Amino acid sequence: MTIFRLLVAFLLVASFAATSLRAQAQGQAQGQAQGQAQGQGRGQGPVQVEDRSLDRVPFPAHKVIGNIYYVGTTMLCSFLINTPEGNILINSNFEETFPYLREAIQKVGFRMEDTKILLASHAHGDHQQADAMFKQATGATVMAMEQDVPALRNMMPGGKPHPIDRVLKDGDTVTLGGTTLTAHFTPGHTRGCTTWSLKAMEGGQSYDVVILCSGAVGPDMTEAAQTIKVVTALPGDVFLSAHPWPFNMAWKWTLLQRNPNTNPYIDPAGYKASIAGMQARYNTLLEQQRTGGGRGGAAAPATQ
Fold it and tell me: Quick one: pLDDT at residue 215?
């Protein structure tokens, strides 16, 4: 089964590479249109789509920028942040994918046991089911936004109590080894959906990194408006998310393999385009509610 999953992941990446070559052959005009649709920095290639059958399929672990590394699966994002005093992990994901997480951390040159802090995007099982397992393996301090605590208390795989060592509030900071992350309360997808921001250094330059909790909008329009306001105000040179399709990770990874000297993750225009997409979905849902469209006047949110 593991060989099959690795083959699926390889074919996914290979398909992105093959599709990109075909796209280049279609001419400069089409390439410009793709660039406008996807945002500068995303590249003139295929847009990654949601495929939840790949949740449990490994993806190549790699450096994103500075001290930030991708160690998640093909559809579930985990980020390792390396510091001189130990590492920070965002999202433990499923217990079933725990071996892939350990292997990914090793592949980028670190040990899982050196993780000192475990954070998360939001209290869904695909991002936090393995928190207790990770805590047991590393002793890491587990932190969560206060509004997500009730959901986490009920997340008990195998009957294991969910560890929560520090309850976070909007604007709280988490600092380790000279790296500081700020927790931003961006509710909607879950009650305590958390967007993280931090600085990363690369090539002697500092970049603003935003790890979005979710690009989903609704059904609570007040929360949606608050979240859009928060993320719009955040400077974002590099934007990531709890899932890879909002920031087109597979294509950016492909570009990175072709030219390691140019980092496609530096994508401020892509971040602005992502927020514009959230605003557009908000406007659509608001209009549906105003006119009584959707499900009883309120459309369901996207599953990001």
Answer: 82
